[in-house]
Amino acid sequence: MNTQIPDINQRTNQSPLRLQREINSYEDFERLRQDWRRSAPTPLLLQSDSARLVQFPGADIRVLADGDQTSGAVSIFEQTIYPGFVATHHHQAHEEELFFILEGEMKLTIGNQTVVAKPGSFGYAPRWCTHHFEPAGDRPSTMLTWNSPAGHERIFESFGRLVAEGRHTHGPTRKAAAEAHDTNFHDLSQYAEDPAHYEQTEERPGPRGRAVSARTNRRPGDRDVARHPDEPDPLTYPVLTSVDQVASTHIAGLRSGVLLDGEHSAGNWNVLYRELPAGYSQPAVVQRRGWLAIHVLSGVAALTAGDTTTTVGPRGCSFVPPDTSFGMRTEGSQQASVLIVNSRASATL
């Protein structure tokens, strides 16, 4: 018997100790991530409007889970982006990022493909993959994002401090803050003291980054996929799709579609969209492999994480570390829809 299970379960919704680290370089950032790996994870159940809010011009970010809570495994956010905000083309060399649109329309780039993403759209940007987003139109857009390993919340906090100190308009300062947090923007003109006289307006990622981006929505196993010699096997494949585009199964009123699988993510991810019929119940079981996050998109559901069960509505969610109990059931006479993100694609749900 794993004696660790009760200890994890009893930590549900506890506030972990925040690791205070000054991040001035990527080496500082990696040391923070190493420290997180030695910490204990905390199961979570919450509504997004109760989560910590980080703000800077053009964006309101609810931090649903951070590195202090997840042992550095993942950071989970609900982001509301306002017209005028643009996250220009960028990539992370050591971090994967996933997107799911909740409200509004977002111009979303994953790899070499760009769409106007509507509610239900999903994107997967593996390491080195180019991505970009901004509202499409004159209304705010809201999306869920997952960054793994954790730490992306610290760049939001860093940019927030620059705004508070009035230093956010200084290009070299913004560049240093972004790169210290493993984020590399491609348009270097935004970092110049005088962008109007900056000769190089855009720097693309190297051949490895171009190779990853070119595989967007390709089928694993294609012989002519773009790759770079120093990429390790197996390869990852960026994905840009939606719940309406993926094949679905229907069993006893339950509709299930796979947005991301292990073939595309080198075994790292399994992302499912599910419509749960009224009366649906999955008894609590122990999550053994990887971590799990369940997000309620519509309806009302009772989610279990650790030793706690909470009824939540839309924008409610759970985070379940390994060796932790989880479960879910619909409440009332209506169906519910959920998004299930698991960090091990072999997990069965």
Describe the structure in your own words.
The chain has 349 residues and is an alpha+beta fold. It has two domains: 12-232, Jelly Rolls (Sandwich); 241-342, Jelly Rolls. The chain is built from seven helices and 23 strands. A seven-stranded antiparallel β-sheet has the order 1-21-18-23-16-15-14. Strands 2-3-4-11-6-9-13 form a seven-stranded antiparallel β-sheet. Strands 8-7-10-5-12 form a five-stranded antiparallel β-sheet, with helices on one face. Strand 14 (248-251) and strand 15 (254-260) form a beta hairpin. The two termini are 23 Å apart. The mean pLDDT is 90.
- The Cα radius of gyration reads 20 Å
CATH class of the largest domain: Mainly Beta
Order of helices and strands: HHEEEHEEEEEEEEHHEHEEEHEEEEEEEE
As residue ranges, the low-confidence spans are none
Report the biggest beta sheet as strand number plus sense, adding barrel if it closes.
Answer: 7 strands, antiparallel
CATH superfamily of the largest domain: Jelly Rolls
End-to-end C-alpha gap: 23 Å
Helical/strand content category: alpha+beta
CATH structural architecture of the largest domain = Sandwich
Question: CATH topology of the largest domain, which one?
Answer: Jelly Rolls
Q: Helical proportion? A: 10-25%
Write down the oligomeric state: single chain
Number of helices: 7
Overall morphology:
globular
Spatially, the strands of the biggest sheet line up as 1-21-18-23-16-15-14
Number of strands: 23
Mean pLDDT: 90
**How many separate structural domains?**
2
Strand content: 35-45%
